[in-house]
# Entry
Amino acid sequence: MTEKKWVYSFNEVKLVEEYVGGNWEGVRGLLGGKGSGLADMTRAEVPVPPGFTVTTEACNAYQAAGKFPAGMWEQELEALKKVEQLTGKKFGEASNPLLVSCRSGAKFSMPGMMDTVLNIGLTDKTAEGMVKLTNNPRFVYDSYRRLVEMFGTVVLEIPDQAFEEPLNEYKQAKGYKLDTEMNAEDWKAITATFKAVIKKVKGFDFPQDPFEQLKLATEAVFKSWNGKRAVDYRRATNIPDDLGTAVNIQTMVFGNMGEDSGTGVAFTRNPSTGDRKMFGEYLLNAQGEDVVAGIRNAEKIETLNSKMPEAYHQFMQITNRLEMHYREMQDVEFTIEHGKLWMLQTRNGKRTANSAVKIALDMANEGLITKDEAVQRITPDQVDILLHPQFVVEDKEVAKKENRFYAKGVNASPGAAVGQIYFDADLAEKQAKQNKQDVIMVRPFTKPDDVHGMIAAKGVLTSEGGATSHAAVVARQFGIPCVVGASHIKIDLENRLMAVDGKVVREGDWISVDGTTGEVFVGKILTFTPKIEEQTDLLTLLKWADEICAKPGTRKFSPGWPTKGLQVWANADYPKDAQRARSYGAVGIGLCRTEHMFFEKDRLPIVQRMILAENLDVRKAALDELLPYQRADFDGLFRAMDGYPVIIRLIDPPLHEFMPNEDELFEEVITMRVKGETTGLAEKEKLLADIRGMHESNPMMGLRGVRLSIYMPQIVEMQVRAIFEAAADCTLSGVVVKPEVMIPLTGTVNELKWIQPRLIKIADDVMKEKKVNFTYKFGTMIEIPRAAVTAAEIAEYAEFFSFGTNDLTQMTFGYSRDDAERNFLVTYVAEGILPKNPFQTIDQGGVGRLMDIAVKDGRTTRPDLEVGICGEHGGDPDSIEFCHLIGNNYVSCSPFRVPIARLAAAHAALKHSGKALAEDK
Ligand code: ADP
Ligand code: MG
Ligand code: MG
# Structure
């Protein structure tokens, strides 16, 4: 039996490919990112210092057994011999010593893994040999002291200070400021001092056997895989523990051999702007880590051209080739030794959202990648970042330096906001509208009657609540930067101030809120707002995403809906939201909430009169007053959505939400009684009694949705009349309307059977009255589990389904969302009882299964059933992918998330192209 191969030389990548079955992911898995890059470059005849990689499998074997697997060390020695042959040097031999670096490298780059040890192989003996060879004792002892220090800190885990302190003392004693002032004798003395540090701390000598150095360094890399920082990082980023890290042993090349040597790092394109121009820095006469550490001011890469034209030219050629090979922007490390260029690392470069879009687009236009790939390369998060106001990075740094950081909460809605704080909605609105101030509304938490203040504000800050609290949901809906649950802040509403550890901010003071990170600062930080109309690159990319989704044929779920991917619609209540939705690329309104219109100041009194009406005539009179308002709302909506479907949901919330707050009213009544005020008291007492009469112990499961329509049909009759009158008027003026009336909270088909024919009759009456004809639909929300499992019956009446996944999640889990998020949900996610917050990402196994049943069963009754989702999940990429898979026709989300959803829909379509069709058969 041949022994397992634990070690591969850089020039053995073919063997690795054979072993893992040919795929590059497998190679990366076995050799790690760094090792596979080095091997790949070696194969492409890029100048790479010879070396070898100890595999991740060896690492895993080491973790299991607590020692090197059998044969591994011997294979390392074998591989080292080959390196000696290639370089003509010998490890540990004084006359011409081979020095190597020991570099960790997992499949994914991971902070917290062991750092690199350079110059392994230097000992007292080989150092002397190197001096003779190079005639450069300063270089040799500089390298040697680096080895002793790195070995001490990295391998032996001695704190940095133990080395830094004696070095600083030495420099002080000599009157030196910079390392460059140190001469050969100085470094030699420091080397001795560092060796003494090791002896003192560890009780043994710095190993003078180079093989011992190599062995310990290899083992230290393995051990660092299970170091605390590395494990924490893996937990946070979902990198599995069993990947292991590889160890790369590589011949040293020296950038610190004089002014004809140097080292640097570079990106093949600009990582912050995306410009197609090499971006990088280098230092002459320096070793690798010096550039990153910023010890000296590095030079711009362009200037290398005049200093070492040949090496520069070769470098440009090689990096260009690497970019073509990986078809991605590369981040490379290089070193020049006596004018000769060596490449030490290549990997896909990290970049800003902005430059990611530009690079993807450019590469597609250059023919390097396809349009589909360009779309795939941008993440939904990157699009999100691009659309929200952002703080100017430098100015935020200044704020931090000036100690203006105030508090941190949950980053509920991204973007940057700067404004004066106000502690209630009315005042916030007034200051914003009348006094034209930039306002941040600050509350312990928010409620539906705070919305007008939130909309008027530039940002929202709360001290309570989580990522799906009312404040968070509304803020996201309207694209308002928002931080919630900043629990260190004590809000004192009475004295109109807030405080963190005694640091007081008063009403009217300026703060800056970063909804992207959850940070709050005192005072102003500069911002800039990217406009989507101006982001031509992003618009092009989104157009490509739409083209992917629009391609017909691959998803056969729904006859008459022949797209490959999902359409993206928007939730919009007002014409201006609809316009915004259009400009963000929505092709329909998936949810217009009519009750928001009832909350407006001039309408609320009429609404209350209507609710409290003692007889039908009074109620009808109030509704007649509301009708023109509603008609005007819908008119604007239809015009904004000319040619596109508009789903309007009939009234949904329990009526008490439109009434004054019971507790506050009670207080007023008591106060009046105590003070003996009589005028108006009787009315107030009557109102209080009425409101108390409406009390429900579980309003969210009480009289609302279709139940309310059946209990009090006059309201929805008015709404349907308003919808169809507006639609008819629009049609007459040449607008193409596609109204879809949505009945909320259906639990049994009999509810639809009762209400829907009455409403259809009104629709037809209006069309007759106005002498126009247009198509319309009636449908329902699926948000009660019973509706989902009886979808086949419900589809006999409903022409479309729209999943209200917020309610569906509440009712499926039996969680009241507000309570759950305030209490146990955080624990549930932390303990892994739930993988994710189901109010943010659809719970596929439960809620999702109900959705799947509803779609399938609904379409057995009505094959052309239109299916969408209008819950908050409609803007969540994972949920969007799920909606694609179960055969939704569209997702509907807040206008601000439409671009994100367009991209996510394209990703889903690409990921599952073909597959969905196969499953459908
Ligand atoms: P990291 O993953 O932290 O970048 P690296 O293993 O890439 O760690 O190495 C740190 C620095 O040392 C880099 O600048 C790298 O180029 C340099 N370096 C690593 N190995 C060698 C070598 N054999 N010769 C010269 N420089 C090296
Ligand atoms: Mg590196
Ligand atoms: Mg609902």
